[in-house]
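Predict fold of Cellobiose phosphorylase; 912 aa.
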Amino acid sequence: MDRKKIQGFEFTGKDGEFKLQQPDHSSFLYFPLVNEGGMMSTVTPKLHGQATTGHNTFLTPPLSVEDLHNSRASRNFWVYVEGKGAWSAAGNSAKQNAAFYTPSADDAVLEAGFLWHRVTRSNSEMGVKAEITSFVPSGNDKVELMKVTLTNTGTEELTLTPTAVVPLYARSADDLRDHRHVTSLLNRIYTSAYGVEVQPALSFDERGHRINHTSYGVFGAEGDGSQPDGFFPIQEEFIGEGGSLDWPEAVILNATPEIGKGGGVDREGYEAVGGLRFASITLSSGASHSYVVVMAIDSDRINVEALMSKYGTSEAFDHLLKETKAFWADKVNMVEFHTGDSDADQWMKWVTIQPVLRRLYGNSFLPYHDYGRGGRGWRDLWQDCLALLIMEPAEVRSLLFNNYAGVRIDGSNATIIGQQPGEFIADRNNIPRVWMDHGAWPFLTTMLYLDQSGDLDFLLQEQTYFRDTFMSRCKERDSSWNTSVGSDLRTVSGEIYKGTILEHILLQNLVPFFNVGEHNNILLEGADWNDGLDMGADRGESVAFTSFYASNLLDISRVLRNLKTSKGQETVELAEEMQLLLDTLIESVDYGSVSGKHERLDRYYAAAPNKVSGVRVSLDIDKVADDLEQKAEWLFNHLRSNEWVQSENGDGWFNGYYNNDGEQVEGEFSEGVRMTLTGQVFPLMGHAAAPEQIPHIIAAVDRNLFDDKIGYRLNSRFGGIQQNLGRAFGFAFGHKENGAMFSHMTIMYGNALYKRGYVKEGHKVLESLYSLSTDFEKARIYPGIPEYINEQGRGMYTYLTGSASWLLLTMVTEVFGVKGKLGDLLLEPKLVKEQFDSEGKASIKTIFADREFEVVYKATGSFNYGEYQIHSVTLNGSEVTLQRGSGSAIIPREELLALQTEKLHVIEVTLA
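Predicted 3D structure, encoded as tokens:
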């Protein structure tokens, strides 16, 4: 078969369903199957992938993306056709792999939706077709289901003997190389009427072996619930001497299983396999027969009868599949877009589900995400909430509140996130590290929440602080601290200390202001957003995030003034030690003096080492706001004057970094231009870039970073390994953090352009990302955003990326302009001609003020942004009296709260 003829995926319905011909002709494809109960699976077109509930509980062997085509240990469903031999319904046999590009190869079609996966495979020589549907049922059971339907596609009767096979790894990912054989000796293997179950005797850990209770099983039945005919529980016996999982002796020779119907025979001390032999059947031409396979993980021995009663028939499978489709459709359809491109609208549904997938998988347990032990990092907590504010807003207030418990009194934060909301764990690996950007994100997310809700009282709610052995942003250790005293910050008298959320926000943004390097920008420390810039801890500076913090300081000052005008708040109550950070209230610090800032910061660290006095002071809210504003304005002037790179051709941009030798990273050098996209995004997104600088930045980005092949590169070619900056430059150029199209920063660049009114340029950025992601011949990914696009145009690290939250946020609040303004609904569309349909309409369905709205924009004249304004607005057919702005309109929250909650409300906006 000629792979050049392989077409990309095509959408087949209105709920994101898509189809792909010959999916196994593309490498690295995988699909997520997951539920809220903690079952996390992956499935490929050949049924490879893994099933797990966490780092220490893998049902199937843990894998990396290269294992998808190199490992033989995958789910499989074999058919022995009398007179013709063995055929894998999954396409995963040595014979089928060898025939891959020959005329005798299988024909295969993938169909998928939210979150189900189906591959239909047929082979004319064998005269058989197999339809294999996989999903993880919504709910809390840790199971994965698979239904296989076999059909005789020939003209004569076929006699078939089916065998379902799933390798049972049944232990921690740590055991994959470390004591792989030894841990197999712990296996206790049980056969029952429906399958094979493994419960290892111990959880193997050289720090202390513990009794294991977790069980893993593979069970099956015919579509009507009939039991299998026999079992192969031991892997080496199933494959035979010299055999393999893709050419196993038991199938190739159609051997009779040693353990017959009903099971009841137990084994121990070997690698296990869930090998289920079903009774031979004879199918007439066109006839079909179905089987259901259930993979399960439980906290103790599995109740097999109850499990199979719930899942073990075709009828149950079909019912649960319908339920699961509805569950995910409800989540995804909380936000829907209608533009002039229906495929783009369908693609956005897959973007919309990605933040939910990241909440469930963390940053692990998918083939490209083969690192970490589960969970999310600090930055992820806040950026994932951006999407949740749009999709699941009711849950966000408590999430934000819980997350603030991870802030330390030195302005840094916990980096190990527990499984429960608000759970933070002291560092297990004794590695002191601070990402300097971490303090900037919480306020950005909280500000979105405040705009969406108007809930300024949230800022005055009190929360604890995190405490561990690290102090002074991990530069010192508290020798008096140990785990027995707990992880809550305490006062000198031993009481748990709480401060307002506002106090937490101020702390995270004020400490960095003083924590500067020799060029008076905030120190890079362990790294910033770009984890690859991790070798500049001593003298490195992040100018990019200095811009972010500066913008935060100005916006916080504005929030304080709103607190006074709308809530009558005259004072701010803070820990007395924090007065040292509000220097204009005590004694002024020369902001131009690096040593002066360090002296003040050291005084603060000494005053609040790893405990506080517990005394609070009430400060005049205007004076605090003035202090923050002065700091912000000083930073803006500093950045615009000292960090602006003027190009010889007239372009200009911001230097984003200093390296560990104290050298400016960006500019025009003898070996070429060095430029980062990050260094431009944050001055643009906030207030640091002056209006007259923006056109120059755009021109410089287009000249130095835009590439027609892969879009907006994260950086230009620096040349050579930069050991004074970070590991990123050890990567080949055009890959990951070294010059790839990194979706996260690209989307934030587009968001920043929209924010600053450069809509045509912002649209170009988003269109570039969409085109790259959907160019299947190059990207080779299913619908959605990858973490990055590599030098060849391939999409990498699919599904789990914070860029999905940012694209969803940008589409809702900037492109369609449906956003909050301290609780009121602000409509400020920035649609371009291509986004209106043939009738001049574009619409979005979303949630605001706990009500569902469909906002419909109708252009009656020009379709080009800048040439239309809001002419009129109706709500459920009645005209709305508007508060008008420049190109915008506000509907007061009171009017929205008067609406029914269980109804879709229609806002029609006429643009003229």
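The chain is about 25% helix and 25% strand.
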